[in-house]
Amino acid sequence: MDATGNGDVAELKRVLRAHGLRVTGPRVAVLQALDAAPSHLSVEEIARAVGECYPAVDRVSLYRTVETFEAHGLAVRVELGDRVLRWERDRHAHHHMECRHCGAVIELEIGHFERLAAALADAYGVRVELRHLALPGLCAGCASSVA
C-alpha cells in the first residue's frame, strides 16, 4: 500500500503481467481490493470497493475476474459454509474452522494439515493439495457451552 491507501498500482500491474494477464483498470482495482482487505471478500464487497473508481463494472465481470485470478494463482475462493462465496489473495496455504453455532471463523495452523497430508500420502499413495480448507465445527467457547 502507498501512503494514500491505494496500493502500489505499478506493482499490481507487474503482478498481473507476471501471471500472463492483460492489465486493465478494473483488474487492478479488484487486485487492490483483495490486497487491502483484512479478510475474505464477497463479490458484493469487491463491487463496492471497485465501484468507487469503476461504477460501470457489473457483477458478471467481477466474477469472471476473480475466477481468472483463481486460475492464475492470484486469488483463492473461500467457502465458509454460509453459502456466500468469498475471495482473497492467494499468498499462502491456510485453513479455517467456522463455528456452526456462533459463526466465528478461526484460522487454523497449517502444521496439523501438513502432517495429515503426509499421513495420507503414506497410507494411500496420494498427494493432497492443501491450499485452503474450511471446516465446520464449534469454537472453544461454544464447544464448552453447547451440548
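(ticket continues) Second input and output from the same batch:
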Amino acid sequence: MSDRRTFLQTTAGAAAALALPRWTRAAAANAADLDPIVSEIDKRHDESLKLLQTWIHQPSIAAENRGMSEGYDVKQVDPSEWSSPPWDAALVDKPGLGKVVIGRGAVNQKGPEATFLAALHAIRGAGRKLPVNLVFVAEGEEEIGSPHFHQVVHRPEVLAAVKKCSGIFMPSSSQGLDGEVTITLGAKGVVELELISSGEKWGRGPRKDVHSSNKARLDSPAWHLVEALATLVAPDGNDPAIEGFAAKARPVSPAEKKMIAEAANRLSEANAKKLLGVDHWVHDVSWQEALELLVSRPTVNIEGLVGGYTGPGGKTILPGRAVAKIDMRLVPDMTAAEALATLKAHLAKKGFADIEVKMSGGYDPTSTPADAEMIRVSNAVYRRHGIDPVLLPRNAGSWPGYVFTGDPLRLPAGHFGLGHGSGAHAPDEYYVIESANPKVQGLDGATRSYVEFLYELVATA
C-alpha cells in the first residue's frame, strides 16, 4: 500500500513496527466498538497471567560474550534478598496494591511486554485484524548497555522496514501509586564499564593475592583504585569531576524548567521517597530541584566494588586486583563515545593511566518533541481514562532508542501503558495483576489501554 505509514514499538529487549493503513469510515466504525476485544481480554486473563509467569521463570540474563538474543534480558539477583524466590513469579497480596506478581523482570520489562502481547492476542481472538502491521525487533543485551543493538539499523531488511516508521513506542507500566502518569520526552544515555586496578598493569603491588602482613612494604592495587575513584566526583560523591565530561551537556531550557515546576506541583514527593526508601535528596535540595537534577544532571555512579576476599568472616590478604563497576548517565548533546574518551583522559592526567577501562556497553540520549504523534496519542488515551499526565523532559533511566532517534532515522520515541509496578533491578520487583486501587489498572486494564492506543494511532492518523 503506497499510502501506508509505519510506527515502531520497541522495548529494552524487543521491538515491533506498526504500519498504519489509511483509515476508512468502515474501519472507524468497527474500531469504535471495542466490546468484543474487552470481553476477549477478560476471558484470557488466566492465560495472560500464566504466560507472564512462564516468561519470568526464564531468567534471560545477558552475558557480555553474547550476541543478539530472542529473549529479554534482566538484571542478576541475590535470592536471599527476596521475600519470594525471584524466578517463581509468585502471585501475592501486597498491602495497598492488591495482587501482584513478584519476580525479576516483572515490571522491567516482561510485565508490560507480556501485557502488550496479550492485547494483540485479544484483538485476534475477537476476530479483528490488527489496526496496524507489526514488525518485531528483539535484543537481549539492554541490561549490559546494548553493545550490539546499533547493528540493527545497518541490516538492510530491518532498515527497509524501519524507514517506513513514524515513531518508536515502548510499552510501560506508567502509573504511580496514586494512578498518576508521567510522560517523558526522551531518556538519558548511559555508559557501563569496569575500572580494573591490578599489580600486573600498575607495576607496583602484588600480581596475585598475598598475605596482608606485606602491606607494610607493598603498594595496594585496591587502595590505588579507591584513590582513582575519588577523583571522578566531588568530595561528597555527587557532582561529576571528570574534566570535560559534561562540557557539552545541554542546559535545561526555560520551557523545560516550566515543565519541571509544574510536575513538582503535581507529583508526590512523599510517594517518590517511599518508593525509593529514602529520607533526603542530595544536598537536601527541594522537591523541584530534585526533579530537575533527575532529568538534567549527568552522573557518575559506582554500581559495585569487587576485590580480595568477600566471603563470611575475614581473610588476611593483600589483593592483587580490584574492580569497580561504573555507570555514567548522559544528557542531550553528550555522547557515549565522548564520555568514555574524557574518562580515559582524566585517569591518565591524574596519574592512573595503568587502570584498565573496559566498556561493556552504552549509548547516546534520546529526545522527542512534545507534539510528536505518539505523545499526542498517549495523551489522548490517558485523558479518556480521566488522567491528566505530567510532562517531563526525559526519563532519568536509559534505553537504546538512540538507534532510532539518531541518524540515519531520526524518529520520535516514547513510552505508553497503564498499570503499575516497581522494584526494577532491586529485590521484590513486582507488577500489579489485580489492583486494589480503582485509580490504578491491573493486568486486564493495562491490556485494554494498549488496544485503545493502537486504535487511537489510526484514528488520529
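Agent notes: Residues 5-187+366-459 form a domain with the Aminopeptidase fold (CATH 3.40.630.10). The CA atoms of residues 180 and 387 lie 7 Å apart. Closing as not reproducible unless the customer responds.
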